[in-house]
């Protein structure tokens, strides 16, 4: 056996015995070389052999890590089974207090809904903004009127074309983030007292829009890897009038799934047949982990019942809050409501983003972010399975930057949230993602921030606190 093969065999045995666990960093090549008194070349060959066998993986500028167990080796989350009853929505106070605590306590942001801003090309966008300001010093209200800046609209349309979905630029209405786009779309198709079908769990921004309109939500069973259960959705539609559906087919927050193409097509067929609009929140569509850009519901829509909403806030910059809607047959109503609600979207950030998209390598930036998120998703899942109580289950994100965690039934996520905050750590309690109490023992975690000893220790602490909650219940 050659020296590098012997070293690889020894490391593999240590991993099998649990000396190095899934997601843990191996000693650096230089450290391993000194410790075993071997050449750097020998260690490199050993690590490459282990990597080729799928036992370890390299993380750029971070080193080598033990690979997480494959999805097939880990227990999966079960399909949700919410009580399908229309309910008034009142989650805004809980969400607001949670978000305030994240910023006010300067805590480790495991509960943050926002991506790590240090990953964004802020300097390039700021330089574009500065250049625009120097070239043009006067701005009028008419420059920012709906539907939005023509230069940005062209760039958005080109991006869709590059990703395989040709769209009509005239359909685009630029908004102040995806949140405004979602609110405008819902306002265009519903009224106070109407019922809206949502996934379960669902992103609380969708619930906010329903609450704001004085509507009711009905939660529909949702598969953790394939999305909303279409049979359950049909039953809901058969039983009562539904004004609209609200879904996130790509990398849903908090589950992280990517709905299969055939299911996306079937969902569009269903809502088209029933003539019920569907509001598609696609803010994470650029943050996929695979090799191919995901399709959207919009790409299967021929009758205009898909109201597609997206933004640059998750993939490029949170500072500018530029989003847009592709509202289909409801386009004129959305544009009118945009004018009545907020009048304009500031032109200055629209132009800065448009020039960045045209000249500064958006795709290169995205490739780096996608690779990093995919690696950190594996590390976060491995750490949760290592540190949290037995019986803990996690989602299997296909994109985005959030992980959904099901704790043993005896753990109260609100109590866990409060105890973690006392120790300078935030988590997202599961009760924010439902109109009921279905997800009392669930939490959402953010893995967009660079992996560090502090994050590793924070996860260990949260796991210990969860175990304490479990013991108290017994």
TrEMBL record:
Domain HTH gntR-type span(s) in chain numbering: 1-69
Recorded superkingdom: Bacteria
Record key words, sorted: DNA-binding, Pyridoxal phosphate, Transcription, Transcription regulation
Keyword Transferase tagged: no
UniProt GO MF annotations: DNA binding; DNA-binding transcription factor activity; pyridoxal phosphate binding
PANTHER family noted in UniProt: HTH-TYPE TRANSCRIPTIONAL REGULATORY PROTEIN GABR
Taxonomy of the source species: Bacteria, Pseudomonadati, Pseudomonadota, Betaproteobacteria, Burkholderiales
Signal peptide coordinates: none
Native source species: Oxalicibacterium flavum
UniProt-recorded name of the protein: GntR family transcriptional regulator
Gene3D superfamilies in the cross-refs: Aspartate Aminotransferase, domain 1, Type I PLP-dependent aspartate aminotransferase-like (Major domain), Winged helix-like DNA-binding domain superfamily/Winged helix DNA-binding domain
InterPro entries: Aminotransferase_I/II_large, HTH_trans_reg/aminotransferase, PyrdxlP-dep_Trfase, PyrdxlP-dep_Trfase_major, PyrdxlP-dep_Trfase_small, Tscrpt_reg_HTH_GntR, WH-like_DNA-bd_sf, WH_DNA-bd_sf
Family, as annotated: In the C-terminal section; belongs to the class-I pyridoxal-phosphate-dependent aminotransferase family.
């Amino acid at each position: 056996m050659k020296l590098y093969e012997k070293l690889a065999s020894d490391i593999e045995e240590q991993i099998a015995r649990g000396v190095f666990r899934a997601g843990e960093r191996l000693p650096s090549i230089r450290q391993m070389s000194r410790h075993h008194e071997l050449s750097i070349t020998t260690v490199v060959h050993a690590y490459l052999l282990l990597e080729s066998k799928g036992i370890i993986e390299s993380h750029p500028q971070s080193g080598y890590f033990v690979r997480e167990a494959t999805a097939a080796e880990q227990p999966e989350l079960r399909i949700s089974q919410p009580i399908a009853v229309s309910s008034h929505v009142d989650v805004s106070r809980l969400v607001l207090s949670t978000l305030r605590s994240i910023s006010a306590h300067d805590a480790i942001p495991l509960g943050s809904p926002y991506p790590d801003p240090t990953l964004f090309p802020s300097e390039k966008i700021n330089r574009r903004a500065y250049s625009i300001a120097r070239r043009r010093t006067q701005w009028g209200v008419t420059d920012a009127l709906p539907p939005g800046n023509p230069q940005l609209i062209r760039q958005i349309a080109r991006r869709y074309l590059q990703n395989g979905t040709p769209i009509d630029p005239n359909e685009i209405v630029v908004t102040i983030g995806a949140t405004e786009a979602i609110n405008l779309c819902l306002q265009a198709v519903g009224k106070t007292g109407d019922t809206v079908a949502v996934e379960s769990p669902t992103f609380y921004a969708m619930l906010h829009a329903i609450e704001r309109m004085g509507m009711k939500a009905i939660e529909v069973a949702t598969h953790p890897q394939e999305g909303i259960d279409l049979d359950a959705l049909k039953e809901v539609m058969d039983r009562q009038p539904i004004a609209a559906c609200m879904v996130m087919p790509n990398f849903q927050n908090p589950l992280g799934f990517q709905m299969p193409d055939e299911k996306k097509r079937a969902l569009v067929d269903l809502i088209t047949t029933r003539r019920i609009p569907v509001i598609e929140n696609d803010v994470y569509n650029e943050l996929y982990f695979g090799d191919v850009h995901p399709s959207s519901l919009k790409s299967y829509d021929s009758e205009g019942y898909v109201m597609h909403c997206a933004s640059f806030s998750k993939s490029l910059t949170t500072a500018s809050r530029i989003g847009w809607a592709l509202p289909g047959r409801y386009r004129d109503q959305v544009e009118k409501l945009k004018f009545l609600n907020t009048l304009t979207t500031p032109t200055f950030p629209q132009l800065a983003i448009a020039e960045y998209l045209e000249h500064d390598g958006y795709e290169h930036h995205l490739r780096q972010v996608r690779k990093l998120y995919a690696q950190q998703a594996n590390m976060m899942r491995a750490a949760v399975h290592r540190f949290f109580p037995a019986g803990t289950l996690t989602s299997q994100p296909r994109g985005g930057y959030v992980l959904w965690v099901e704790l043993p039934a005896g753990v109260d996520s609100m109590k866990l949230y409060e105890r973690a905050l006392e120790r300078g750590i935030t988590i997202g309690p599961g009760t924010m993602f439902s109109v009921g109490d279905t997800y009392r023992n669930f939490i959402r975690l953010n893995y967009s921030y660079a992996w560090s000893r502090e994050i590793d220790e924070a996860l260990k602490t949260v796991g210990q606190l969860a175990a304490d909650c479990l013991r108290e219940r017994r």
